[in-house]
Automatic annotation (TrEMBL), chain A:
Family: Belongs to the calcineurin regulatory subunit family. CHP subfamily.
PROSITE patterns: EF_HAND_1, EF_HAND_2
Protein name (record): Calcineurin B homologous protein 3
SMART domains on file: EFh (SM00054)
Membrane topology annotation: Lipid-anchor
PANTHER family: CALCINEURIN B HOMOLOGOUS PROTEIN 3
Gene of this entry: TESC
From TrEMBL, chain B:
Keyword field contains Ribonucleoprotein: no
Sequence ranges assigned to domain Cation/H+ exchanger transmembrane in this UniProt record: 77-476
Domain Sodium/hydrogen exchanger regulatory region: residue ranges: 567-673
Protein name (record): Sodium/hydrogen exchanger
Membrane topology label: Multi-pass membrane protein
Subcellular localization: Apical cell membrane
């Protein structure tokens, strides 16, 4: 995925700022971003940067450090969809973005979002608020899982067991929501965009 | 279309018309006869007694002069209300044409009657009455019901579009008309530039709220809706500011004396007026929010405070020659968030309805005036002026829409398509605002006022009727992108996650974005503002208010479904208990929490459906029927299905049962007691609820119904009944059915609305978490207890 050269410049500067002029960034470097501390899902976001699946380095695992190229790879997930792209490319882009999200939920890389992982996500999301107890978060997650099951699997047999949300199920859930417009960062919005992989 | 409207009037409307006719005839007769009598002798004697001198005490007198003004005003308002009732009785009509059409027709009718009977209409409308009494309620109502989150998300585009759009339109139309006036053939050469500009400013005041109802029918997407709403909100303010500035210019000099310095001063004034107005509005909003913090013991005056402070903000701003409209709008927006949390449920309802009522009355009066002015002799029809006005209105609106959106699309993450822009262009419906400003033009400065009024009326009629009626089909034809507001938990969660993700990534990249601004504002709000402006013991008192709201709903529904509760809800009692006594039973705590868990979202619904003339109707009856249907269904289902659970359980810790309700203050003793109650039920029965959940989750019907279903019958079940009654068996007794129905209807979905706004929902789920209170139907309790008996959860406590 290509980004324009101005933006690469800009990102490179930012990369150097974060890494302290080192060629690679480690997780600790993200502590230099003060506003990120207040973000409830910061650990997931940081982890996403190092996730091998996002970096296209492997099916699972977490890298220790990333270089600038990896940094750009992650950033490219947040590029806006170009209006000139045709339908197929738009679908591909969409899938890529959703895959990124999926990896955020699926922390153990088993290809499914299990109830526990989902609960974890919800707890983190609501962790910013001191008034909510863990049980509330838990019940929310349970309910969401239930709903996902109904959306994805439909009528379930009495003996059927729903293991977790697979990527296809995840796509189904997201069907109505337009991720293309939601998941992009403003500054990357420039004409000379190339296609998603 | 018009015929249908008339048909829909109904018999009593005709009756009222006849009555009105009678009255006006009678009054016109009286007017002639009383014209000769002096003011100090209001009594009019009938012919029979009139020959006598004044020594006789009149047996029967008719004094119409005394009551004329209020009487006629009341009659008009009633007539308009009856017409509205007729309008809404015919279901398809509100979606087809805006309600302003109806009001205009009624106004024209009244005007025709008054004209026909040669009656002197009471001088109700003049400048001060309009600006002081009729305008504020309308503006207050639109500010108060504005959906804040979408508004602030789109605020850049809205300000850009509304502000610049109004200016471009005003000056464009004014200048073009001036050029037309220069053409000698049209006989308009005495209309100078300033007058044209003034006319331009008042004719560019759009009132697209009228079309919002049509939009709702078509379910257009949220940003488009917000643009129109935002424009409606700000447009009035901007037009009035412009109007006043230009009037000041007109009064001040003749055209030739105006220097560039004056123009600059005018521009500066424009900005100051706008910003100053908003500033005052915000201050008053905070003051009133602060005061409502202390009104818990005297909740009857809460609506009064809200209204008086809003009105005060308007008046203060007007005193300083700032924009009162923008002030009152800002006040309403600021105040709403905090006031809603502070005031009691009844005050909240009162405020909503009263606001609607006031604005309805104002608008009706203005439209009636419009109708009265239409049918009359004081018109001046100038073909050229009127036709060109119409043409230029459309042309300049198109120019401003396409130009401004072209620019703002560059900066938006979700640009507006050409279709959207066409719809925005076409929704430029004028309304009462333009008419009022035209009507109030001072005749001394505007010798050709009648022409302006006529032209304004023509534009209004044209846009309201033709554009208003055709915009619905146009929206459908263009297939504008619809909103996909599926109310699902997952969606809510994901969107929330996305917000944070975006904010996080933007932080990492070191870029500023409006998400961060919003985040920062929320933190500031949370840390400081809420502490000052909202009553103490926030979680608890919000529970109380939430409790009250839900209680009210429950009470209504229970009565409707015929299940009466033996226990009364006593709110004061609850309040006392919540204030910290430890005498609450744990079951109450849990039941309350469960209830709140499942009902919270209904209370916190996002009001995207804004309808100026209506509040969202209560759907309690539909819900009650739903319950009955569901009960039968679940009964059938439960007879057929098997037992096992939907969730696979790899490890013991992962509790599959989704019913892991939050529960707070542990009271093991009672819990065990309850467990004991249930363990003697058949295991098969215990499985039923979860299966029923499954069944019901397939039939995914609008979630709004669920919470109330959940609430209802368990209450009666719970209170003071013996354990055996909780058996989930196929009994024919009412309660059991109810019980099963209840459980079947249990859904987790309601929780999700709670996740709506992070902090706010946080508060509410917190409330549920720490909820304590008696008398709450523990509708989930029995099932939960069931699960507890099988689950490791119980052991944890």
């Amino acid at each position: 995925m290509l980004i324009s050269s101005d933006q690469i410049e800009q990102l490179h500067r930012r990369f150097k700022q974060l890494s302290g002029d080192q060629p690679t960034i480690r997780k600790e470097n993200f502590n230099n971003v003060p506003d990120l501390d207040l973000n409830p899902i910061r650990s997931k976001i940081i982890r996403a940067f190092f996730d091998n699946r996002n970096l296209r380095k492997g099916p699972s695992g977490v890298a220790d450090e990333i270089n600038f190229e990896d940094f750009l790879t992650i950033m490219s997930y947040f590029r806006p969809i170009d209006i000139t792209m045709d339908e197929e490319q738009v679908q591909l882009c969409r899938k890529e973005k959703l895959r990124f999200l999926f990896h955020m939920y699926d922390s153990d890389s088993d290809g499914r979002i299990t109830l526990e992982e989902y609960r974890n996500v919800v707890e983190e999301l609501l962790s910013g608020n001191p008034h909510i107890e863990k049980e509330s978060a838990r019940s929310i997650a349970d309910g969401a899982m239930m709903e996902a099951a109904s959306v994805c699997v439909g009528q379930m047999e009495p003996d059927q067991v729903y293991e977790g949300i697979t990527f296809d199920d995840f796509l189904k859930i997201w069907q109505g929501i337009d991720i293309e417009t939601k998941m992009h960062v403003r500054f990357l919005n420039v004409e000379a965009m190339a296609l998603c992989h | 279309m018009g015929f249908q409207v008339f048909v829909a009037f109904g018999p009593w409307n005709l009756l009222l018309l006849l009555v009105a006719l009678e009255c006006s005839e009678a009054s016109s007769d009286l007017n002639e006869s009383t014209n000769s009598t002096t003011r100090h002798e209001p009594n009019v004697q009938f012919a029979a007694a009139s020959s006598e001198p004044d020594e006789n005490i009149p047996v029967f007198v008719l004094d119409y002069d005394y009551v004329q003004i209020p009487y006629e005003v009341t009659l008009w308002i009633l007539l308009a209300s009856l017409a509205k009732i007729g309008f809404h009785l015919y279901r398809r009509l509100p979606g087809l044409m805006p309600e302003s059409c109806l009001l205009i027709i009624v106004g024209a009718l009244v005007g025709a009657i008054i004209f026909g009977t040669d009656h002197k209409s009471p001088p109700v409308m003049d400048s001060s009455i309009y600006f002081l009494y009729l305008l504020p309620p309308i503006v207050l109502e639109s500010g108060y019901f504005m959906p804040t989150r979408p508004f602030f998300e789109n605020i850049g585009s809205i300000l850009w579009w509304a502000g610049l759009g109004a200016l471009i339109n005003a000056f464009g139309i004014g200048l073009s008309l001036y050029l037309i006036c220069q053409i000698k053939a049209f006989g308009l050469s005495d209309v100078n530039l300033l007058q044209n500009l003034l006319f331009g400013s008042l004719i560019s005041a759009v009132d697209p709220v009228a079309v919002l109802a049509v939009f709702e029918e078509a379910r257009v997407n949220e940003p488009l809706y917000m643009m129109i709403f935002g424009e409606a909100l700000l447009n009035d303010g901007i037009s009035v500011v412009l109007y006043n500035i230009l009037i000041a210019f007109t009064k001040m000099h003749k055209f030739e004396d105006i220097e560039p310095v004056d123009i600059l001063a005018g521009c500066a004034r424009f900005v100051i007026v706008g910003v100053g107005g908003v500033f005052f509005g915000i201050i008053f909003g905070f003051i009133s929010a602060f005061i409502t913090r202390f009104t818990q013991n005297i909740s009857a005056i809460e609506p009064l405070i809200v209204f008086m402070f809003s009105y005060l903000s308007y008046l203060v701003a007007e005193t300083l020659y700032l924009s009162g409209i923008l002030a009152i709008t800002a006040c309403a927006v600021t105040m709403k968030k905090y006031v809603e949390e502070n005031v009691s449920q009844t005050s909240y309802t009162t405020i909503k309805y009263f606001m609607k009522m006031l604005s309805s009355v104002s608008e009706t009066l203005i439209f009636i005036f419009m109708g009265v002015s239409t049918v009359g002799k004081n018109h001046e029809w100038n073909w050229a002026f009127i036709c060109f006005t119409l043409v230029f209105c459309q042309v300049w609106r198109a120019i401003s829409v396409f130009a401004l959106f072209y620019v703002s699309n560059q900066f938006r993450t979700s640009p507006f398509s050409i279709k959207d822009q066409c719809i925005i262009f076409y929704s430029g419906v004028r309304g009462a605002g333009s008419f009022s400003l035209a009507f109030l033009l001072p005749l001394s400065l505007f010798p050709r006022k009648k022409m302006f009024v006529t032209a304004t009326l023509v534009v209004i009629y044209f846009t309201v009727f033709i554009q208003g009626i055709t915009i619905g089909p146009l929206v459908r034809y263009l297939d504008v992108k619809k909103t996909n507001k599926k109310e699902s938990i997952n969606e809510e969660l994901h969107i929330r996650l996305m917000d944070h993700l975006k904010a996080g990534i933007e932080d990492v990249c070191g870029q500023w974005s409006h998400y961060q601004v919003r985040d920062k504002f929320k933190k500031f709000d949370h840390r400081y503002l809420r502490k000052i402006l909202i009553r103490k013991n926030l979680p608890k008192s919000s529970i109380v208010s939430l409790y009250k709201k839900l209680e009210m709903k429950q009470a209504i529904e229970m009565v409707e479904t015929g299940i009466l509760s033996s226990t009364a809800f006593s709110v004061p009692q609850l309040a006392q208990r919540i204030q910290g006594t430890k005498r609450l039973s744990p079951e109450d705590v849990e039941s309350m929490r469960d209830l709140l868990t499942h009902n919270m979202y209904q209370v916190r619904q996002r009001t995207l459906s804004y309808n100026k003339y209506n509040l969202k109707p209560q759907t309690s009856e539909k819900q009650a029927k739903e319950i009955l249907i569901r009960r039968q269904n679940t009964l059938r289902e439960s007879m057929r299905k098997g037992h096992s659970l939907p969730w696979g359980e790899p490890a013991g810790a992962k509790n599959i049962r989704y019913l892991s309700f939050p529960y707070g203050h542990p009271q093991p003793a009672s819990r065990h007691r309850r467990v004991a109650e249930f363990t003697d039920n058949d295991s098969s029965d215990s499985e039923l609820p979860s299966i029923m959940f499954k069944e019901h989750s397939q039939r995914d019907l609008p979630q709004e119904r669920y919470p109330t279903q959940e609430i209802i019958p368990m209450k009666s079940l719970y209170r003071g009944r013996k354990p055996t009654n909780f058996r989930y068996q196929r009994n024919t007794s009412q309660e059991e059915h109810v019980g099963q129905g209840r459980r079947a209807a249990l859904r987790p979905k309601p929780l999700f609305r709670a996740v709506d706004e992070e902090y706010e929902s946080g508060e509410e789920s917190a409330e549920e978490a720490s909820a304590i209170g008696p008398g709450w139907p523990p509708e989930h309790r029995p099932s939960r207890e069931h699960h507890k008996s099988h689950s490791p959860l119980l052991r944890r406590k």
